[in-house]
Amino acid sequence: MRLYIAGPVSGIERLNRPAFERAATRLEDAGYSVAVPHWFVPATADWQTAMRISIETLAKCDGVALLPGWRTSRGAKIEQRLAVDLGMEAHAVRTWRVEK
């Protein structure tokens, strides 16, 4: 199962990369394949471009793992809602780790 990791990025030091990387490691250790936006969105991309690239990748995944603070992120809220609308499960990272 491939999980897209969603969470706050804009306005956070280092674009919140450490939190995404920790989540990726934990989910991979639990047996999931993961997609982290930082891995495929250029650091120089504007918000709209980043979201277009992210949504394209999210649509190829099986579910979404949500980082703490996702509800305060405009982009993560869009990603969570899109996943649900597409019939995917969207849960906190810790929930995915327990449910496996």
Report on the structure:
- There is one protein chain.
- This protein has 100 residues and is α/β, with parallel strands linked by helices.
- The protein has one domain: Rossmann fold (3-Layer(aba) Sandwich).
- It is built from five helices and four strands, in the order βαβααβαβα.
- It has helices at residues 17-29, 37-40, 47-58, 74-85, 93-99, and strands at 2-6, 33-35, 63-66, 89-92.
- It has a four-stranded parallel sheet with strand order 2-1-3-4.
- Helix 1 (17-29) links the parallel strand 1 (2-6) and strand 2 (33-35).
- Helix 3 packs parallel to helix 4 (74-85).
- The longest helix has 13 residues, at 17-29.
- The radius of gyration is 12 Å and the shape is globular.
- The chain starts with a strand and ends with a helix.
- The model has no long low-confidence stretch (mean pLDDT 95).
- How are the strands of the biggest sheet laid out side by side? 2-1-3-4
Fourth-tier CATH superfamily name = Hypothetical protein PA1492
Number of helices: 5
Total E-strand runs: 4
CATH architecture: 3-Layer(aba) Sandwich
* Top-tier CATH class: Alpha Beta
Low-confidence stretches: none
Mean pLDDT level: 95
**Beta-strand content estimate:** 15-25%
Overall 3D shape: globular
Q: Describe the largest sheet.
A: 4 strands, parallel
Please, how many domains?
Answer: 1
**Helix content estimate:** 40-55%
**Elements, N to C (H/E):** EHEHHEHEH
Radius of gyration: 12 Å
Query: Which secondary-structure class do the elements indicate?
Result: alpha/beta
Distance between the termini: 10 Å
CATH fold call: Rossmann fold
